[in-house]
């Protein structure tokens, strides 16, 4: 549906000229407008994934982000922004949203999401809630871009939906004696979804397996040249010990999965198996990259600098993400946040020192790896301390503290290795904690606590806010917002 024009150069000029962080990408016919004043969205991903989204009727989709507070009336703020910056979003009489308009709004700080519709696209409150809930699944983990995409995809499914495709009609058909037909429709949808996920996971696994196959000879040669005295080489050799068996098993599994017929691919067990295959081949891909890098680095082969860069990259990424943690409410003034900020500066200097030592041969590769390992362990310790501090700020009682601790730990456990990293490959998943997984854990913890609080006493009356506040006047456009 979405036809794009390129505004990249214009956006770059705005940045160079010191303009506000808002970025807008729109088409000549106004199909998509992105107003990312919060600076949370990744436009290339939005462009790629929404290019295939089709609404049933011509629709101008607006993605609007801003930074507010939980106490704000999002509806009122969205309307005020439209009146000030985009009057074309409002009907000529000023009382409704313009026809053909759908707005998906996000406040990552106040943790609110809103949906707003032109009168010709208006949907029931239950459908608005469904669209918001689709986005919340990603927002709760701090995946802002993915949440916006999920919300638009849900809206495309709901807006202008034929009467016979609505859940209410399907439910009526069930109660009224059409259970068999309704069941058939649901089963078809579920099976199609499973086949789609199966195909995605099979493709992911096949991509990794192809890379492993192409690099197999290089990996085996690198494994034979690992210096026996290096503890990192020894730990990698343990990971490589059954690599050949795993590889041949993966090839057989790929062939088996590829041979499954449509009916077999529609089963949930097949999706789980394909996902396990993709995870296994991804791990093998990371192991062989780490072995090649270790052999090059530890023996100072001609390609050692590229291998060292692969080890440093995860640390640099983590250091670059530390300032984002200070954006959470109450974080900036905490001693734990200040310790992280100070660590980022010293760690960056240490990385430069290690690289210089390797280049002038004043530092052995094994010693450089140990120093890098110390940096990553220290960062993990500081993040643990900061998690305790943030929990103390947000949680009101022991139950809330335990809920947040569990979310932090869950996100840490699901942390995955980064390709080519020796330390990630030889360590258990989640051994090193990154600011990204920390932020996801905090977001998930806050979401769980907020859900519990709202269940007992919600200031949004059932979880949704519908009015436009005192400044809205007589405006009565279709829309609502809720928390996540």
- Count every beta strand, where a strand is a DSSP E run of 2 or more residues: 6
Number of helical segments?
17
- Helicity range: 55-70%
Radius of gyration: 26 Å
Global outline: globular
**Low-confidence parts, pLDDT < 50 over ≥5 residues?**
3-30, 457-462
Biggest sheet overview: 6 strands, mixed
Please identify the structural class as seen in this structure: alpha/beta
What spatial order of strands do you see in the largest sheet? 1-2-3-4-6-5
N to C succession of SSEs: HEHEHEEHHHHHHHHHHHHHHEE
Mean pLDDT: 84
Task: Give the CA-CA distance, first to last residue.
Answer: 29 Å
What is the beta-strand fraction? 5-15%
The total domain count is: 3
Transmembrane segments: 168-190
Domain DUF5129: 34-370
Organism: Microbacterium gilvum
InterPro entries: DUF5129
Give the topology, please.
Layout: H1 8-16, E1 32-36, H2 43-50, E2 60-65, H3 74-85, E3 101-107, E4 112-117, H4 125-139, H5 144-158, H6 167-214, H7 216-224, H8 231-240, H9 243-258, H10 262-265, H11 268-298, H12 304-325, H13 335-359, H14 365-394, H15 398-413, H16 422-426, H17 435-456, E5 464-465, E6 478-483
Parallel strand pairs: 1-2, 2-3
Antiparallel strand pairs: 3-4, 4-6, 5-6
Helix pairs in contact: 2-5, 4-5, 6-9, 6-11, 7-11, 8-11, 9-11, 11-12, 12-13, 13-14, 14-15, 14-17, 15-17
